[in-house]
Amino acid sequence: MSSSKVQPAPEGDSPTGLARKKSLSQTTLSIRKSFLTNMNKFGNLANLALIAGATMSFSDLGFDLVIIIEYMQYNTSAAYATIGTIAISLWAQCCVVYAFHRNRQKRYLFRELFYVISCVKPGVDAYRVVTKQPLPQGVLVSSHEEMMYLRGVELFAECIPGCLIQAIAYININQTTIAALSLMSSLLTAAFISASMTIEKDVVKENRIKNPTFYGFIPLDSIPRGLTICLLIYFISAVQLVAKTFALALCNAESSTIMAAYLVGDTVFYFGYKTFRKDFIYWVPVKNIFGAFFVSLMARLITKLSLDFTAGFMARHPYEFGGAYFSFTMISTPVVCFYFGSRYLSYVEGEEAKEKFKNIFSSELVYGAIGGLIFLQMVSSFMFLRLIEPKYRSSFLSLKTGSQHVVETFRTATNERAKIGVMNNHRSMWKEIEEDVRVYLNENLKKWIEEEQEWFNEGVRAMVLDDLVDDPELLKMLRRPVEDEETGGR
């Protein structure tokens, strides 16, 4: 009689193994719950920042009105310049709103334009984003994306020029307490708007899904670490804005022509860089070639000045500067500041300057202020790069163009929404993969329509180009009439 040897139970089936599995499962569940809880907390914080940004836009307009009244008493040119920045800002915002809403019914288009002219558009957009209202038919971008571009316009046409006008007036004419407080408020408001744009875009779940290699550098699994990064983003933005504004105001004290030459030359260099890399046409899907050029020109100009002055981290996106050019602007700022500071000190030693200015800054103050700002920028930038996830650091050195990003997104994305989203870019950006997009679209379009998938909403349907749909019946199903675009709640 042979003796049978009892085999030990596998570890996974033993009490010890089951206990380990249960413990591991509980730990995993706890981590997931913690992650979702922190994500909700960050979502709430992002909403608060969103509301605060809209509030600060209103308050900045109020400060502009106060400083205009003061300037009318002794510096009418500064008053008219400030009024001009507000008018240009409203005009540019109307152009952006028209570009994004031009396919809607006229009554809805005019309503959006009225929101801009009456200066309540920031509040309306903030409300739409916080309440997560759906995208109506005919709108090219989401409420959040539209708000980002309108904030960029506000930075470009009102906030940053307003800061520069006030800084010039403060140095050249009036160094009063009221002028100093108004200037400080404008600087902090502009920096907050820029920083909040970066933070809001990064914590949005959809952005992290569509572009995980770019969005997500603010960790959601650690509230203290994430908040520290958010504060550093704001601090870096404020330091960059103060440094550039201060340097250009000193340059203007010597010659407004030199300051204008620098701004024009810097912008032309950027346009040349984009043109050389065949990356000038912006992503907005405007069909008309002249319209596409105009939109690209305006968009590049707005993002160049607004994000350059405020160190907007969104500028490192391939659609905007790209990582390498963004880092170049950050490195070039100290050089520009020291150069204009030294020119100012050389100029004020002459008799002309002593007769022109009531108060002249000393070399200790100028070099001390610029040196201090640059030191703070370097330290805060180092801390920022140290705290973010390592995989995102390479995005600050990337040479990827917008079209390369679009092609890469289509070829690597596993999410259907991300793949079909390439059609929401200018057609020239995905011309290389147009046939692949056509094949993918026709293979899946019927399924998306019949299953009525939640992500395949009216906004996504609108981005599908008719000439890419091979089946006429399928195209009719895609373009089924909508009773009223406002039934979506917007």
Describe this structure in words.
The chain is an all-alpha fold and 490 residues long. The protein folds into two domains: 36-400, no CATH class; 406-488, no CATH class. Helix content is 71%, strand content 0%. It has 18 helices and no strands. The chain has helices spanning 15-74, 76-101, 106-117, 121-130, 143-172, 177-203, 205-210, 223-254, 256-276, 289-310, 323-347, 351-356, 363-387, 402-412, 416-420, 434-451, 458-463, 472-478. Helix 11 (323-347) packs antiparallel against helix 13 (363-387). The longest helix is centred in the first third of the chain and has 60 residues, at 15-74.
Q: Helices and strands: which structural class?
A: mainly alpha
Radius of gyration over all CA atoms, rounded: 27 Å
Secondary-structure element string: HHHHHHHHHHHHHHHHHH
* Strand segment tally: 0
The proportion of residues in beta strands is under 5%
Compile the SSE list and pairings.
Layout: H1 15-74, H2 76-101, H3 106-117, H4 121-130, H5 143-172, H6 177-203, H7 205-210, H8 223-254, H9 256-276, H10 289-310, H11 323-347, H12 351-356, H13 363-387, H14 402-412, H15 416-420, H16 434-451, H17 458-463, H18 472-478
